[in-house]
Amino acid sequence: MLGFCIGTSALAANGESTQPWLQEFAENTQQQAVNKNLPGYVFAYIEKGKVAKVFLYGKETKNGASINTDTVFRLASVSKTFTSMLMAKYVAQQRLDWQQPIAQLVPDYAFAASGDKALQLQHIVGQSSGFMPNAYDNLIEANYPLPKVLTMLSELTPLCAPGKCYTYQNALFGVIEEYFSQHHSSYGQALNQEIIKPLNMPHASVGKVALQAEKNWARPHVAVGRSDWRAVSVRDDYYQYSPAAGVNASIEDMVLWVRALLGEQPDILPASLVQTVTRPITLSKRETYRREWRQYLKDAHYGLGWRIYDFNGHTLNYHGGWVQGYRADVAFAPDYGVGYVMLMNAESNLINQFTADFWAACFKALEKQDKLLSNNSMAASY
């Protein structure tokens, strides 16, 4: 396994200097974190076939240990990137089908089994159910039992036919949780078997109990002032919907995840499956209006568990996550074989700016590199 280059804001631990653009980004990010008194974060820059550059800041909690590469965070909705790949593997193994009606997956609920209102597996993972956006998230946060919420969803009238519009959901992922339960398994067991163990992820897990069993785990923090943060208890709510928001991981785990997505583990994550889940399917135009991103985004779609952005002409596969006390971002640019992860133990919108700034700087550097290589190639031909 390729290792890590642990960086401060300027110099990696083994004495290797970082690229100037990455050094500048790391310094600016750390300074903004200091200004806002952020509890902690970790981010990584991954290039296919090279040592990952990892940058650490802050502590697990105010008087706790410093964040390191083993520190485990909640991934929140970044979990959906794992769920989409798990479902893609099940489809490839002919255990499921993307067009399979969810009435077959969870027959105990009254979801339509046929006709133009019939929801399919692809509509859950692809966020095209047609239900009002974030349907019954309020019930998740009120700790309603999962079966009760699924029953209410099955009776909900959609805004559009399945597959016709982008409507982001969390509660509907409970169908996948329930599917595994009805087959005497669990989402966590399936994910361990198909992805976590094969990729040798040392700390990745599913669920609250698994998070808190870790020796090093980042406590959640919420804002109580402009630059004041308070540690809070880990909430149960979204952990009931693990396929939507129940995965935990360290930066070491996430580097392995991105490496696999970049094609370094084709026996576990075949390129065909990565292409399947990152194929643009449903237009999500509102994403292009995100304040920190809008100057860069030319188009936006949702695939299967991934957002697919046109970032100033470059394809960027991205997903973010947000639950109480945590933020997370993961993204990779397949054309360049590079990726990025940021994990944060605070509910700070700064992560939006950090990630947009990262990719703006990264693509600028890559374009410059391409131009230099092109010029050198032309010169060599004379």
Automatic annotation (TrEMBL):
Keyword Amino-acid biosynthesis appears in the UniProt entry: no
Keyword terms, alphabetized: Hydrolase
Domain Beta-lactamase-related: 28-348
InterPro entries (UniProt xref): AmpC-like, Beta-lactam-related, Beta-lactam/transpept-like
UniProt-recorded Gene Ontology molecular function terms: hydrolase activity
SUPFAM superfamilies given in the database record: beta-lactamase/transpeptidase-like (SSF56601)
One Pfam family here: Beta-lactamase
Name under which the protein is recorded: Serine hydrolase
UniProt organism field: Paraglaciecola hydrolytica
